Amino acid sequence: MGFLTRIKSLGGKWLPLAASCCLASVAAFIPVATLAQDTVGDGSTVVYAADYFAEWQPITASDMLARIPGQDAGGPGRGGPSGFSGSPTRGGRGLGSGAGATEILINGKRTAGKNNSTQQMLQRIASSQVQEIQIIRGTSGDLDVRGSGQVINVVLFEELSSTSFSYQGQVNYSQDDTIQPGGTFAVNGQNGALDYTVTLRSAPRYRNSLNNESSILGDFSPNDTVIEEVTVDGVNNELSFNLAYALSSNSTLQVNGLLAQRDAPVGIDRVTTNLRTVPVGLLVEREDNPNPRNNWETGFDYEYEFNNGSRFKLLGIANQDDNERTRQRYQRFGDNTEELNLFLDLNAITEERIIRGSYTFDIFDGHSIEVGAERAQTTLDSALALGLKSDSGSPSDAVGGLVPVNLSNANSTVEEIRYEPFAIHNWRINPKLTLESTLLYETSEINQTGDVLNSRSFDFIKPKVDVRYDITPTFQVRGSIERIVNQLSFSDFVAANDEQDNDAATLRGNAELRQQTQWRYTLNTEYRLPNDLGVLSAEFFYADHQDVIDWIDVSTSEDNLASVNGNLGDGVEYGTNINASIRMGMIGMPNLLVNSTLSLQDSEVTDPFDGRKRRFRVYQRGRFTLTTRHDIPEWRFNWGTQYFDRIDGSMFQYDIRDFEFTVGEPFYGVFAEIRDRRGITYRLDVRQLTDGSQCRERWRYDGRRSDGVLSELEYRCTHGGTQPSLTITGNF
């Protein structure tokens, strides 16, 4: 029995929020006469056939997915603005999907890679090649992924031979009147048993922002002001390929590759006005900060299906990220000469090698088991060099002709070898109820060599239980209990540049850092409204964290206060996510799709510096999003809006001698898209219609923060400006 056959057998601004919630409530009771999606099997899998999308004339598979209620993640910008993401505490390890994540498959297979994005592949696949899109809400041993909130499977037509070409040209405009072009060209098709996609992409990463900072001293007298213009003149050039070959009727092989150049040089012009002197003093500085970065990845996924229906899978991934960041600060003088006074160079090469094998088989009717193991090797080679202007010491060309500064833990290699055997049992208890239970054992060893010599071993048992019950074909309840081991950031092990504070040159590393773990409990409900009117869903979660990672005190004396990322102890996290995706058929506009999300959450941990209970560092209390998409098929036109707003006043960062919190204005965006008779699409995006300021307030203390002796109060705002772009897309 093939995969598809098995799959089909599976049964501050709250006025917009109030309006969307009312619409969702009304939608549950008002039917509309529009084409509904089909369900297959017991209703756990919802299928959208190709003709469902015909009236909207989509160009790509990504365009098709955006028309499905509940699947447009952020609307035209393919996501929200930076700084509006959720809690960073949910990241797991290995190739398994994260808790509650949505996985995207192509013909039942996921991309054998981490950086080679499946979502980008959807933008290269022509809509004419898509047979149907499946929203898989149940669990099964036949799926290529486990533990996901839901799975989106894009099924392509099985043609003997077909080739399509797609192209996309883009022009971005920034607030400093700079115009940056970019483009993508992709070849996608089939030739007998071979499916292939080859993509060339060049995308600008240009960004211009203005920063204004003012500060007062602890006695509330004026200190200084800073005006700063930051320009990131980056580029993202990529060559990627995805090949799938049917070796026989029982076996398939996928090979993926990515070669990318992601340079992001930064230029800064800064004027600091000293308000403590009469007349005021001016310090004019310039920074020239190159950031060459290269990234490659390759992966394969082999599957063999035995005659009895059991399967063997072997997957491998190798990647490398070579990232060098250099900070060069020059002081400018009145005669237009300048002098280098700071040189900071950080070179970090991260490599990863993963191999994973598994065997899936049915033990008896309704029960399947997958057993396997994963091995991963992750390494970081890091070297940090600091040079300062000084009258003592010998200058060195290695630090721009300045005097080198000895840094602890500046040159290190960190390596982790991890083994993870696992067993996954999937049980279809009855047509409405499924249970998936997972048991993983992780054993790892982390070695650090160079300036610091250290070796440690870790062992974790990671169980998970996932239960799903289809009360009706349209109403599902699911719950899970899982132990998660979060991924460590190896950059926390070694000395690094402090990019958040111009007054601090480097951050120390912590060779004793341990993984943050958590027990996570979730309950989800999902109701698919009748007649394809939309989807309502809600998630409630509670997480009990161990070894929370945050700043800890590593001071050697009161005259040498210092902090690093370390393990605080236990913490808790809880919250809810409520989503509504509604077609406005109740007001006679079935082609208007409105998506709204409300996230509310909180957390608690003990501060290591003053012993008080507080939230996790830089933890969002929640956010509200509202996006719309209105299709007018007879005009071959669609347009939409974006609104993002987070709950401000709660994003704090606590350190030994200062703390800060961040607030920001809402994000507004709008897009308009029209398709001509040749099938070419013209799209205008305007991201950040308003100023979109993001502001930070920092309190500095004389000595320890817990002593309460304020020395300086800074207030800093960043203005990114409106960001319009024009995109032309077509295929042939």
Annotate the secondary structure layout.
Blueprint: H1 3-8, H2 15-27, E1 38-40, E2 45-49, H3 61-66, E3 102-106, H4 118-122, E4 130-136, E5 150-156, E6 161-173, E7 179-191, E8 194-217, E9 222-246, E10 251-261, E11 266-274, E12 281-289, E13 293-305, E14 311-332, E15 338-364, E16 367-388, E17 403-405, E18 411-430, E19 433-450, E20 454-472, E21 475-485, E22 496-497, E23 506-507, E24 517-528, E25 534-546, E26 549-553, E27 563-567, E28 571-584, E29 589-606, E30 613-614, E31 622-632, E32 637-646, E33 651-654, E34 658-664, E35 667-675, E36 681-687, E37 694-701, E38 710-719, E39 723-731
Parallel strand pairs: 3-5
Antiparallel strand pairs: 1-2, 2-4, 4-5, 6-7, 6-39, 7-8, 8-9, 8-38, 9-10, 9-11, 10-13, 11-12, 12-14, 13-14, 14-15, 15-16, 16-17, 16-18, 18-19, 19-20, 20-21, 21-24, 22-23, 24-25, 25-28, 26-27, 28-29, 29-30, 29-31, 31-32, 32-35, 33-34, 34-37, 35-36, 36-39, 37-38
Pfam family, one: Plug
Main location: membrane
Region (Disordered): 67-94
